[in-house]
């Protein structure tokens, strides 16, 4: 159970502590931040409202710890990461329980998130050993006008302190996707979890504590974005920011200093369906892609662009599947669970009302109870409706009927977002042409968008973000290049 057994140390009465300098602490602010259970809409957990002074202390210890961590052999860093991964997987039940209570993730998906996170950490440790154990060796005579008098040795070195800010929808997985690469590359890590998801993240951080990482190397500060958000992202001690979330990321990128940024800020992933597509496959992927975790995924299918000639048939198939989705509490493993907050539910409702006013076809009746919104497919959506462009982050999916493929590509490319997209057709040649024309970081052919497997590159263009993620790319992004050049007095050519 959360906050018990191995986790007793992280709880103080009714409030979870924050993690600084290898210890679990209460904030000197004396203030707590409540976490509302999206299902009951009542306060379920409380976390510390850390102060700017406490952030300063965390940054100081992170800086000190990083200096010795960078001198820790790579195999030892990997060994500790493997240990953390295995503790995390052993502790999947209490962590999944937190995910259910604070973000209403269906119980079985919550367990999957924790297990996936353990696997991600282990893979990161292995990949780090492979790619950071290698460098480049360059010879000067490959550039015109040079003799072989210079040997250039290139290696990847840590950046320093990495600030990780994951989103509410994957507070464990999208935290470790930043923590693992940062640590294996020799950086220290300061985590600012989302408020909804903070307690899951604190449990996850305790697994790193139990694995025996040096004190100060990992810290976790909780609190209000309004009090410590800007202070963290503009802190002079931060050498890199890895952020996943909404358009706050754009504001962060404008305020952050001259440091590397990795940002994933959402998407409006289009699903283009051609006449020759396998409509059963498409319908199954629309359900999985559009409605899993109630549509609260950056990579969810967020607009279907289907050729008019097959639109009726596709809509019927999707409607039949929507009817089978179970709706209710996450504890009961329902497919559709309450969205994360009342304001989120209100925003989704605003998009639905706009579509209603502009006469979209409602394939189901719109229904909402508290934060729970029943799955809704909107047919005959037109570009003048907000739902055609905005990201609901909820179980509402628009269908736009198109008469040419170019129309579909045009709609996809007219979006401010450019995370992923997908195309369904049996013609691989057409699929390749469409993929090339779609201005998104990734295009999936004959499957719904998805970030995983977690070692695949994952990136958005336009307002969807900057930098590429995925295990290998994140490790590389969290390093910088150092070269040492050996200058010889006379040219020297190895003769064998
Ligand atoms: O919400 C953003 C996540 O990066 C999406 O990850 O495709 O594994 O659900 P996912």
Automatic annotation (TrEMBL):
Keywords: Cytoplasm, NADP, Oxidoreductase. Its EC number is 1.2.1.9. Pfam families: Aldedh. It is an enzyme of class 1 (oxidoreductase). Its main location: cytoplasm. GO terms for cellular component: cytoplasm. Residues 24-483 form the Aldehyde dehydrogenase domain. It catalyses: D-glyceraldehyde 3-phosphate + NADP(+) + H2O = (2R)-3-phosphoglycerate + NADPH + 2 H(+). It is found in: Cytoplasm. Belongs to the aldehyde dehydrogenase family. The active site is at 264. SUPFAM superfamilies: ALDH-like. The keyword Cytoplasm applies. GO terms for molecular function: glyceraldehyde-3-phosphate dehydrogenase (NADP+) (non-phosphorylating) activity; lactaldehyde dehydrogenase (NAD+) activity. This is NADP-dependent glyceraldehyde-3-phosphate dehydrogenase. PROSITE patterns: ALDEHYDE_DEHYDR_CYS (PS00070), ALDEHYDE_DEHYDR_GLU (PS00687). The keyword Ion transport does not apply. It comes from the Eukaryota.
